[in-house]
Write a structure and sequence with these properties.
With 263 residues, this protein is an alpha+beta fold. The protein has six helices and ten strands. Strand 5 and strand 6 form a beta hairpin.
Length: 263
């Protein structure tokens, strides 16, 4: 289905499917996997070069649990970014996800990129640990999977911005993974009522360096009855103690000022 001009490294994904699947299926308490090289090496520079800078086309609304994060989900037809998302939402990749996850219900992509698309964060940004909304607002489908690809060349550990995965089930408070947002690194994880994730440590990036990612979400019309819960929006939890409370106060003031100025 994909020719030599495609961006996804489907040949590599199929070759590595068994090992990626083993890692995904063995993760607990919710399933996830991180690996490098989802895009072809020869196309990664093009994607990075075409990744747009933040302007008025990006949504950068501040919320108490989210600060300095920008989102963009609409692109010109046949542009590099639109082609990338077309491939991530294509039947061949969705079928690969179906095999990886062994989800029994047919997995469905979301070409509208609701909540997804490009995410870009600037110095000071954070996204508190959370579980995602569970029902698509338009289709009413159940959210089942997140696929995130990071687009950050030469990312330094001191910049923070690591994706944190947490086990907060049964009274626990354990960080189970801390994943650096390196270039062409893909993270796939199931979305349910215990798949807590975020990057709660505020970014410490030099001027001109932002945290960039590509995000697509996948759904099913139904899900196992034992996994069904009432419809909810994103649910946040503080994993950083007193420092997390101070951070919430700062972002809350910024959110309030934004809304006053936009009246």
């Amino acid at each position: 289905m994909f020719d030599k001009t495609s961006y996804l490294n489907m040949a590599g994904l199929k070759q590595r499917a068994r090992s990626i699947k083993k890692d995904f299926q063995s993760a607990k308490p919710f399933r996830f996997v991180s690996f490098d090289g989802i895009f072809k090496d020869e196309r990664i520079d093009e994607i990075l070069d075409e990744y747009p800078k933040i302007n008025d086309d990006w949504n950068g609304t501040t919320y108490i649990n989210q600060k300095n994060k920008f989102q963009k989900s609409e692109f010109e037809p046949s542009s590099t970014m639109q082609n990338v998302f077309d491939e991530l939402n294509s039947p061949v990749f969705v079928n690969w996800l179906q095999n990886l996850t062994e989800i029994k219900e047919p997995i469905l992509s979301d070409p509208t990129l609701f909540g997804g698309g490009l995410h870009q964060s600037v110095n000071g940004a954070f996204l508190n640990v959370h579980v995602d909304y569970n029902i698509h607002p338009e289709t009413k489908y159940h959210r089942r999977l997140n696929v995130i690809v990071y687009m950050n060349n030469d990312w330094q550990d001191q910049y923070e911005g690591h994706l944190e995965l947490w086990d907060l089930s049964n009274g626990k408070k354990d960080q189970i993974a801390r994943i650096a947002p390196n270039l062409n690194r893909c993270v796939i994880f199931e979305t349910n009522e215990i798949s807590f994730h975020g990057h709660p440590a505020p970014l410490k990036t030099p001027k001109g360096i932002n945290r960039k990612s590509i995000a697509t979400y996948y759904y099913s019309k139904v899900r196992p009855v034992q996994e069904v819960s009432d419809k909810h929006n994103t649910i946040y939890l503080n994993t950083r103690g007193f420092g997390g409370q101070v951070k919430l106060l700062s972002s809350g003031i910024k959110a309030l000022l934004e809304r006053i100025n936009n009246q």
